[in-house]
Amino acid sequence: MDIRVDRNRCAGSGLCMAQVPAVFDQSDEDGKVLLNAQDPGPAVAGAVRAAAARCPSGAITLHEHDTAGH
Ligand code: SF4
């Protein structure tokens, strides 16, 4: 899984960091989302999908990739 965040769209609601703090962080400067991990692995994939679905501004997009060979 390849996580991307569009900081131009992020409203700084903090929902994603509250749900998956290992992956999403909040900037001290502008209050918007930062990524701690772009490809955090299957252990948190479900939580990341849920956070992306709940993001009120649609700023989190997920790109599945073939993990064979990684
Ligand atoms: S849930 Fe969406 S709008 Fe809220 S902080 Fe995360 S990326 Fe930004």
Secondary structure elements and pairings:
Layout: E1 2-5, H1 15-19, E2 24-26, E3 33-35, H2 45-54, E4 60-63
Antiparallel strand pairs: 1-4, 2-3
The protein binds iron/sulfur cluster (SF4).
Iron/sulfur cluster binds next to α1.
Provide tags for this entry.
binds iron/sulfur cluster; two-stranded antiparallel sheet; single chain; alpha+beta; Alpha-Beta Plaits
Provide a quick synopsis of the model.
It is built from two helices and four strands, in the order E-H-E-E-H-E.
Protein architecture, described:
This protein is an alpha+beta fold. The chain has a single domain (2-63), classed as 2-Layer Sandwich (Alpha-Beta Plaits), CATH 3.30.70.20. 21% of the residues lie in helices and 20% in strands. It has a two-stranded antiparallel sheet with strand order 1-4. Strand 2 (24-26) and strand 3 form a beta hairpin. It is globular, with a radius of gyration of 12 Å. It starts with a strand and ends in a 7-residue tail after the last strand.
Number of domains: 1
Strand content: 15-25%
Uncertain parts: none
Instruction: Report the principal-axis shape.
Output: globular
- Sheet of most strands: 2 strands, antiparallel
* SSE run: EHEEHE
Structural class: alpha+beta
Bound ligands, named by name, code or SMILES: iron/sulfur cluster
Oligomeric state of this protein: single chain
Which percent range fits the helix content? 10-25%
- Overall pLDDT score: 93
Distance between the termini: 12 Å
CATH topology, by name, is: Alpha-Beta Plaits
Name of the top-level CATH class: Alpha Beta
Strand order of the largest sheet: 1-4
What is the second-level CATH architecture? 2-Layer Sandwich
Q: Over all CA atoms, what is the radius of gyration? A: 12 Å
The total strand number stands at 4
| Number of contiguous helices | 2
